[in-house]
Amino acid sequence: MNNYTVTFKHENRKISVCEGTTLKEAITAEGLDFDFPCGGMGTCGKCRIKILDKNLKATEKELKFLEGKELKEGIHLACETKVYSDITVQLNQKKNEVYNILQSSTERTFTIKPLIEKVYVEVDLPSLDKQKSDLKRLKEKLMQKKPNYKNIKMNISVLRELPVKLREANHHITAVIHGNEIIGIEMGNTEKSMLGIAFDIGTTTIVAYLMDLYTGKKLAVSSAMNPQIKFGADVISRTTFANQNENGVKLMQSTLLDVLNKLIEDSVHKATMLKENIYAITIVGNTCMHHLFLGLTPKYIAYIPYVPVISETLEVKSSDLNLHINPSGKVFVLPNIAGFVGADTVGVILASEMDKSKDIKLAIDIGTNGEIVLGSSKKLVSCSAAAGPAFEGAQISSGMRGAKGAIDHVSFGESLNYTVIGNEKPEGICGSALLDIVAGLVRLGIINKRGKLLSPDNFTNPNALPFRNNIVTYEGTNAFLIVPPSETAHGRAIMLTQNDITSLQLAKGAISAGISILVKKCNINTSDIKEVILAGAFGNYMDPHSACTIGLIPPELENKIQLVGNAAGTGSMLALLSNDEYEHSNAIASKVTYIELGAQKDFNREFAHGMQFQDYK
Amino acid sequence: MNNYTVTFKHENRKISVCEGTTLKEAITAEGLDFDFPCGGMGTCGKCRIKILDKNLKATEKELKFLEGKELKEGIHLACETKVYSDITVQLNQKKNEVYNILQSSTERTFTIKPLIEKVYVEVDLPSLDKQKSDLKRLKEKLMQKKPNYKNIKMNISVLRELPVKLREANHHITAVIHGNEIIGIEMGNTEKSMLGIAFDIGTTTIVAYLMDLYTGKKLAVSSAMNPQIKFGADVISRTTFANQNENGVKLMQSTLLDVLNKLIEDSVHKATMLKENIYAITIVGNTCMHHLFLGLTPKYIAYIPYVPVISETLEVKSSDLNLHINPSGKVFVLPNIAGFVGADTVGVILASEMDKSKDIKLAIDIGTNGEIVLGSSKKLVSCSAAAGPAFEGAQISSGMRGAKGAIDHVSFGESLNYTVIGNEKPEGICGSALLDIVAGLVRLGIINKRGKLLSPDNFTNPNALPFRNNIVTYEGTNAFLIVPPSETAHGRAIMLTQNDITSLQLAKGAISAGISILVKKCNINTSDIKEVILAGAFGNYMDPHSACTIGLIPPELENKIQLVGNAAGTGSMLALLSNDEYEHSNAIASKVTYIELGAQKDFNREFAHGMQFQDYK
């Protein structure tokens, strides 16, 4: 059998191989850094190379993956190409070290450097004359790869496995490393099998992002309702439960951990992966969720001066939290800023990089509490505005969550138009529709500056006249009929009451006052703000024009609004994929100054002012 | 009431106090570093101070503690001295930071800096405007005490206790710190309650030293037999048990841990202390005991090339090993050098400081294996000589352990004289007596160069003649009668057989060959050795003159022998009291070169030569 030379052009390497050897075998033998995602089965079409000095006929499998243009250029699959003559090859594949996470508004570039490293080494066999211990021989090889592994430690449980695994694997092993500690040993080369999950734990919903820590790709997204809802709908009621029940914290923690384990199962199932390959979990959430996740009492968050137990990153073994991933796995919890501005807000800042921006930006994440951050690289201030549940459709007469049957958007033209989630008969209105309705009525002058729903006699705007019959009487005051009983799913009227308007005024007044106070704390004018980052589900659904019309967001900023979706979750993913980003979260948490709105002497005035509407008369 | 000024001269501090205030109150108010061991009750007499500018009359209590000379010098007790005028005081007490451990031969000075630190801090209360988390406020105070606490971490279980303990203790707490981690939080100031236990785990016996980590004092010593003896008397048989039984390692580990817990109980009981105040444990032992203690398989120590799993220090949580001390406690395991030269030998080197010595020293720790170390600060070589159990009285016809009824020393004058442990009728001979008898017979020419027990006809030394009747016939060859049946406890003769002599020759030949080979490896002559350090129980009991006569130790070194007792245990204590010493043990383990005797081509020749005796004809 003849031998032929394969030349790898860019790598400046030559290898002599027997005839019939595939290029995959040649690449592997030469130890070149090149991926075969399907293991060389010819089923993924990813191992594209270019043959520079020959025209080879494409195989049937290649024809399935390669386009005409590629075939003309000499592109082939390494696993399908056999060597029957001297050949010169260019490796086209680029290692995916830089990865972009696309948000709805911005692209964020960073280098993948996950929280957990895997290092494959071929350890020397023990020898009689050198008498080096198993750990010492392993460390020597690790140090050859990275000198700062010199002082790396191994914990006792891994150490117990080391001698046997080392010998069973013929001394070819992969060390799983976190920081200065070898947290696991695997037989053979498993460097590419490394998954992680970024969690965003909200009071109401939990989202899990399953990530490939080697490629940086998002493999699956799973979400679930937070089962702690049975202990209370909001942060305050859960804290109360924790304080009043001896095992309240433990109970809420284990309830939460159960659903996290289900989300882990669900996401690996979706991606057809194994949970044993998950080594890292990142966590963001508000301070109360953060504390309950860790089993820390949220008691002192609820009482003045509302301080959290911890405001820096924390690493915990996954086994200590009973999270079912690889037994060596670690959980990385992002830091809180204050009792009511948590790790989720740190995630938003991390994702938006507003702490590195020269321009002044305003980030708002609206839920039951609205977390607001204002500033630039020079200074960041934050507050939490107690908006209450109005934006989530609660405590609104016809209110409901943004689920099937909810009116989600409303517009006023010659008549009233609305859209319903799921295109069904409407059952109620969700938060975004509430904003649209009130904004429309304010613009038509049907709701006045102080929030009063006027009677038709007092309409002054001609465009309001088509809606004079929508004004009905409810419990002695005016109400606005949105859908008559005959057109609803349940046969009851859907309407907006004077009380509903007041609820909305309280909610938007709090947010508006928060923004005003932060603007003052920064010594700027509202017009200095260059971008408004609207994070979170509600921020993403609501119509920015309506939000500005009712004064939830200063109207002059309407053209500067960016919807960024679940930015807290994006922050969690960034921290998972990059140790630098994770470390940076500590800098963010200490940089942001927290302003307790209740302690500000001008809060009441700002709040009262914020409750008012613009005068469209 | 008048105020007076107390001047503390050396501290250059002045304090104004009301008349009648005691100096103890003044010292405490001024926050000076001065101990009141009995709490100022006037019952210990330790709070001596000197009054420089007044002659005060001594109180009755003072007269109990102070000598005439002290009274003349103006020495008083701070707790007894009340201020009725301006007064200048010199604090005589020196903080006990430097402590001497006296060994039988040498004094070793070091600075107390235990493996666990306790730091008392008065944490700021939380405030609304600063919103600092509990951990952050604690860290701020710790950093004031030591700036490198900046990046200190707290583990999750301690963090869970922090908010409640902080508030229950009115924010006055003591942080228990190991390295870069807060491992415990205690209410109030507990800085002085800090105990540790230094263990020396031998194949046969285990010793526990209970130490006060604040003062450096040894409070109690407890010891027990190693209960693993039921799985095998020596290292090889225990390793075999571990390899042949599925749960062999776990079983031997838990058996060992049980007795360690008993020794912990016993030592705190003796010292009337609480085991909850024990925060640190240090461990030395041979490599097999080290591995079994940690639950590491000793399998690969038993097979060529005999490498250990680990040869550096290791820290383990006490709870991970189920050792019943303070739940925050840590176990610090000293490093091994090789499969047959373990952490106990590192302890001997640490205690003797031979690695820092300009002079060449030889350390020998004789047991079933004799660990030998030779060298100086320039170079250290070590080996393990398989002496077998002869020195421990085993496999000797009349042999027994050094217990009650054992003849421990023998001398030959006009007749044979011996001493018996416990002054009872003798039952057998222990190792030290074996040495004395053989040495005596060699000097008398009754045992010849090759170890043969001569018949009376062949005696040439007139001093041998009184013992001609002691030569008896046993199993067809000569034997030496030590005690006739009528004088023994059991009515059987106690004698030395030709086989016994051969056993001793094998044992001393191995040690002697080990020494010779190390001398060659160091490229020195035996006479270059300036000191012989004999460590371990056997080394302490045996007569150095006998040991040199039979050639166990080169006779030219007889005047250089130092008996240092349990130097391995001393090393364990040093590491417990001083983090520097503990860290230094890693340098020792990597500095010492291990020589595998079986792999040396001149070993057989040296061994054969070492089996011979000197010719006293």
Descriptive account of the structure:
2 copies of one chain form a homodimer. The longest helix of chain A has 24 residues, at 498-521. Chain A is built from 17 helices and 29 strands. Chain A has 617 residues and is α/β, with parallel strands linked by helices. Chain A is elongated and about 100 Å long. Chain A has a 6-stranded mixed β-sheet with strand order 14-13-12-15-17-16, with helices on both faces. Chain A has a 6-stranded mixed β-sheet with strand order 28-27-18-19-20-29, with helices on both faces. Mean pLDDT of chain A is 90; it is low at 95-107. Chain A starts with a strand and ends in a 6-residue tail after the last helix. Chain A folds into 5 domains: 3-91, Ubiquitin-like (UB roll); 117-187, Ubiquitin-like (UB roll) (Roll), CATH 3.10.20; 195-333, Domain of unknown function (DUF4445) (Nucleotidyltransferase, domain 5, 2-Layer Sandwich), CATH 3.30.420; 353-388 and 511-611, ATPase, nucleotide binding domain (Nucleotidyltransferase, domain 5, 2-Layer Sandwich); 390-504, no CATH class. Chain A is 29% helix and 25% strand. Chain A binds chain B through residues 126-129, 131-136, 154, 156, 159-160, 162-164, 167, 294-297, 299-300, 304-312, 314, 316, 320, 336, 338-339, 594, 596, 599, and chain B through 126-129, 131-136, 154, 156, 159-160, 162-164, 167, 294-297, 299-300, 304-312, 314, 316, 320, 336, 338-339, 594, 596, 599. Chains A, B: GO terms for molecular function: iron-sulfur cluster binding.
